[in-house]
Amino acid sequence: MKSIGHLTDFYYNTLYPTLQELEEQRRALKDKIIKFGILLAVAGLLIFYFLTDGFKSIDTDMIIFFIFALGASGAFLYKILIKDYASSFKTKIIEPLIHEIDDNLRYDPVYKIEERIFIDSKLFTDKIDRYSGNDYVTGKIDSVDITFSDVHAEQKHEDSKGRTTWSTIFKGLFIVTSFNKYFSNSTIILPDSAENLFGSVIGSWLQSKNLARNQLVKMDDPAFEKEFVVYGSDQIEARYILTHSMMKRILDLKKKTGKPVYISFVNGQMNLAIEYDKDLFEPSVFRSLLEYQVAMEYVKTLQLTVAIIEELKLNERLWSKR
Question: Which helix (H) or strand (E) element contains residue 43?
Fold first, then answer.
């Protein structure tokens, strides 16, 4: 596996001429976005002025609607303005970085993990009304199949006045890999939010009453139990998968990412979701691509994602698959 140091050297040494070209585009794009932002704000203020009869007939609903409309217009405009720049960045920077990690990996900046696979992972039980994603990578690392992409799953809500809002079910990195043990049932590992909120007694009771899940599986590792809750359709198989060393590796992975981690073992494969609040491989318009910290965000994310194979020892055939 290529180290972060190797990938950072590759980013700066091999990709530097391309980065300089993109940096010029970024600066020009940043100026354009600021100008459009000012024009949009002025236009919005004028429209609001006339709609409210010179600010004389303002009500709360109108303010909320107007802020929402202005924000949505700004986000739509921003997406259009950065489209070509983002496409160039992904093709010229992210794709070579991925091939430098392993030439067997294939990258598609537009495609995403299919919604059916996301649902079949059983990690999230809420009904999905809108599903999107990008930055699809697939291939083999150390003979282990791996596929991942950014994913954003949302649910639609309507209030009594017919207004629509959207809530996020999951946003972040979604990874599917093969696993080095045979299993036929499902084991789901989720962040332990109930015990963290209500304490061990009430939290554990609430977890055992979760009708959307299979049986609660209590693990004998206090550190793991503090961070995660496990549900499974077979208690013995869940413990067969989650050995002490496996639980420690999952804890280490959570610590390394610093993000909520969800894992499931379903249909013979392992699904891993790491929650992020942004698109991981979208280029920054308001920060220089030549900044070390900016570069490290892309390099670290890619390296960590692929290193999960080694992190969880999925490449070690410790047990024969049937």
Answer: helix 16-51
Alpha-carbon span 131 to 153, nearest angstrom: 5
* CA R_g for the chain: 23
Give pLDDT tens digits for 48-86: 888 888 777 777 777 888 788 888 888 888 889 999 999
Q: Return the structure tokens found at 123.
A: 């990690």
Structure confidence by residue, pLDDT tens digits, 242-268: 999 889 989 988 998 889 999 999 988
Question: Which phi and psi angles does 264 have, rounded to 5°?
Answer: -135, 150
> Is 320's pLDDT higher than 60?
no
CA angle at residue 254 from 250 to 255, to 5 degrees? 115
Single-letter code of the amino acid located at 68:
F
> pTM for the full model?
0.83
* Phi, psi torsion values for 12, nearest 5 degrees: -85, -40
d(CA 202, CA 200): 6
Q: Quick count: other Cβ atoms within 10 Å of Cβ 281? A: 25
Residue closest to 61 by CA, chosen among 156, 157, 161: 161
62 DSSP assignment: H
